[in-house]
Specification:
globular
């Protein structure tokens, strides 16, 4: 007779995505830590012409994301990380919403 079971592994380390809050910020942007290896801090910002920002297509809209920190020195992250980040943030329903961040010249 075969049997199956679920082994619950003790959670270690960070969650995959964590929102980093800057209470003093008046800008509609959001900092997000990718907590799994390789770790990055990404910032979702209002549309910009700054070439240091990635343009990422998500649900038919273009979002602008800047890599603020590359903890593991892995270089340019794949766009798939940023799409996954946008999908996760969209599902969290946190504010500011992606639609609010994506408005040109978004501030308080």
């Amino acid at each position: 007779m075969l049997s199956t079971g679920i082994i619950k592994k003790k959670k270690e380390g960070f969650e995959k995505w964590l929102v980093l809050i800057n209470p003093g910020s008046h800008h509609k942007s959001v900092l997000i830590l990718r907590g799994h290896y390789p770790q990055y801090i990404f910032e979702i910002v209002a549309p910009t012409s700054d070439p240091d920002h990635y343009k990422v297509d998500f649900k038919g809209d273009i979002y602008f994301i800047k890599v603020r920190r590359d903890f593991d020195k892995k270089g340019e992250p794949p766009v798939s990380y940023m799409r996954e980040l946008l999908q996760w943030y969209h599902k969290t329903r946190l504010t500011p919403r992606l639609s609010d961040i994506n408005k040109p010249n978004s501030t308080t």
